[in-house]
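Pilot study result, target chain (98 residues):
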Amino acid sequence: MTPVERMARATAFEALDEELQRAVDMEAHMHFVREHHTRKAHAALKAIREPSKAMIEAGRIPTREIDLGNGTTATGLGLGADPESIWKRMIDAALSET
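Predicted structure:
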């Protein structure tokens, strides 16, 4: 199940009140989920595609000089160098699964 499908299923189920949640046949309900809530989940992912400044900062992993042992050094592994583009690529990948 893709992230969009999981979001759609969760939001559709959450939209039901507690009594209906216990009584609903989830398989029958999935037709509605695919038709309606998948579009909503897709829109939600598009809406969060642009990370906030706080999210970008939280995604940064400090880089450091690494001694390669032969008299040379390298700077980190590039991890966290560009959390904004990493986030966007992850969201784009999730969107392309649908």
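One observation from the pilot: The longest helix spans residues 26-47. A full batch analysis is planned for the follow-on phase.
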